[in-house]
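Build the 3D complex.
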Amino acid sequence: MADSRPASARVRRLVFDVDGWPGHLPGQHVDVRLTAEDGYTAERSYSIASPPEDPQLHLLVEDLDGGEVSPYLTEDMRPGDVLELRGPIGGYFVWSAAADAGTPAEQRRPVQLVAGGAGVSPFLAMLDHSRRAGDPTPVRLLYSARSADDVLGEELLGPQTTVTLTRGAPAGWTGRTGRIDADLLRREAFAPAERPRVFVCGPTVFVEAVAGTLVDLGHDPRSIRLERFGGSTDPQ
Amino acid sequence: MSLVSRGFGRRRSGTTDDRLPPGQYDTGSRFPVLSAGPTPHTPPARWDFSVRGEVETPRTWTWEEFRALPREAISVDIHCVTKWSKFDTRWEGVAVDTLLADVGTRTTHVLAFCDGGYTTNHRLDDVTGGRAWVVDTYDGEPLAPEHGGPARLLVPHLYFWKSAKWVRGLMLTRTNEPGFWETFGYHDRGDPWLEQRYSGD
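Done.
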């Protein structure tokens, strides 16, 4: 681990130098494995938050109460410590400029990203990648965070991104507030007629609600890709 | 490789270790939900279940007909490739053996197909011999849509992506045809005790 620094009120950005990293596609994840002195191991998956152009691997890790791996990563691990990573993993929840390069610009279907909380991680990789590639495909992000202190990756936010705060906004906040619902999706996301490829990432309840609303609005279910996290802490 | 993580120790109870495959943890009373796409909502009136492909007699059951088939109660541990395991899950449904009993087949592989376009492949011997079911209740209640209702495949000895949600039928195939996650880098068989998570494991 090269660096560990706060990324928001509840999330740390962990930066790794990975020998022999083969490169990745924005949206892919890694499996992290921790091993105790007695041989006990624990594994969890984390989305990669950095674009393939960055030689270092960035993970955004939320310190979840009662977790086993995340608290170690965010509280105990120090720069210079080593851990086992496996990846890159996943070939479905990905988007890259290279994959669109064979399609004429006017025929490229736009990319709509919808994030809840730390679910923005893979999308920060996609946004950064898109920017570095010269924004060849229209990409928009609709991102729901609890408060202004919870917003991740602010340096990547701009005209193509919309942040909505769900638990109160600071004085002077001019952005959106409230949960991502049909009204907000209608106003801030690509319309079904534009045939966007839609990626949704966040806690299970968020993903289930947004996916259902997108289908109700007329988006093609086959064009909606989902990724959930927090499975171990999300009561069903 | 066993690289010790400085200062890392077990934080969870170890009482169920002998039931946990390598790399898994006990999710307790929670039941996480995962799917690649939106949850389909197929009403029973428009639901049926088919067995087709390399069979002598293809079969289709309506919801009513399916519900009238011989049923079994199953209590099993399940293991998700995303690392959680859940113990003593209770289901009811129809054994795949029952669904295949009269179709006549000599083939070796099967592809489960689902509402929403999801597929997963199995060796026929992984879904026969009392090791797989099509279930429509969980914990005594109708199976909720987010957990695969009206009905899902249940193949508890393999990682849970192999227990396809919203299943609508079985296509018997002459050759092994990778399903959805299997074409995206996940293991072809997915035995949790061998930790067959990804292609090449």
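The mean pLDDT of chain A is 93.
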